[in-house]
């Protein structure tokens, strides 16, 4: 189809710009800056943020549903954010990074995640500080607000802040169609068709070449996903959060347990896998192609791109749901952002990498995969190598992929809705939700490469204005963080909390904290 070919070429040109060296320097540079200006908070305050996130899971204040209008609990906010981040990037994304960049790409995913923890922390701190109530009584927060009211309030920066806020909102809606719809659904369809083949449907080709046809099966799956998504997202954030808090913990635990079984059976390949990750990060495999400089560049780029695609640190996306939390302290919610990146990349993505590298289905020296296996089905093939009976391994991954990707679609629906709300107001947000649901069919009917590349591009476009805001406002993040540390860690009683840019919200939150 000529249109798809034109789209692929246009996307390739834009992708090369936003994910070129300037974009990567901005991404990692911001993470390094926020790590240094918060005194390496993710390490120096490890015990504190761990205690106040995963260590507080059984607290009623964290787990219990809030009665506050327009708010969700801290745990629901985390699950909804993880619903949007723990998606195909954790399975197919990691597999694609390894297939294209080799085992060394995993190392650069870790680096991106380490610094990304503080980027996500900073985004959430700013999001909580600059949030406000909309006409429906719901909290609204995100990069568009700290660009408008943070950057925009600096001298001669009003229109700069407003312009970047508008651009961020536009890019967020586009990203909701890419990473939050088409890319996710495309991988769901690829895995379901591969693992649960129904000949009566898959034999009816609608278009596409003999090697990669789009069939009636793709169409049927797309319709089913559209219907399920519509039932949930049209019910608003609380319905999305209620679904996310039930599905996300379950799917992560099941996937990790399944992965540990694979890795345990192939225990003798664990040390060689880690060796390949560290060695190939700086001395990549020959199959990647190009001169040594080009090879290393490709490995680093794949690691960073897939890392961001997975944990979304730097995109300014998850802050839009973290800002709906009933938590009053910006730093407290920021710590949930640190844990979000840790759980997504350091746990789930590492699990996927070890599954692929220990199973033997991917040759780290040649990049050769079994016949008929692609990056979308590589993890399924790894599971099949241990659980071959009736393709049960691939079926398990297909189900996991469905749950991971489906919840991502739900989470990104909220992000896109908040961006639409900023641009067009609260009354018309149902229009966006309908459009978002309809784009699901595009993902089901697109070829894999186009859907994935479009998602990468939208991520990059969204990242740029957000990171500009975070970099410019880093002194404010330092001030809020130090204020919190003085009060909550060092126990200083005479320090007034910094909670909101709005004096009325600040006053209300101060009273609520005092009552707690």
Structure commentary:
- The chain has one domain (2-515): Amino acid/polyamine transporter I, CATH 1.20.1740.
- The longest helix has 38 residues, at 158-195.
- It has helices at 2-18, 21-37, 41-44, 46-51, 60-63, 74-85, 88-101, 104-129, 143-149, 158-195, 199-202, 216-233, 237-265, 270-282, 292-311, 319-322, 330-359, 378-386, 392-424, 429-445, 448-472, 474-489, 503-515; strands at residues 132-133, 139-140, 205-207, 214-215.
- The protein contains 23 helices and four strands.
- α7 (88-101) runs antiparallel to α15 (292-311), α17 (330-359) crosses α18 (378-386) and α18 (378-386) runs antiparallel to α19.
- The radius of gyration is 22 Å and the shape is globular.
- The protein is an all-alpha fold.
- The strands form two sheets. The chain has a two-stranded antiparallel ribbon with strand order 1-2. Strands 3-4 form a two-stranded antiparallel sheet.
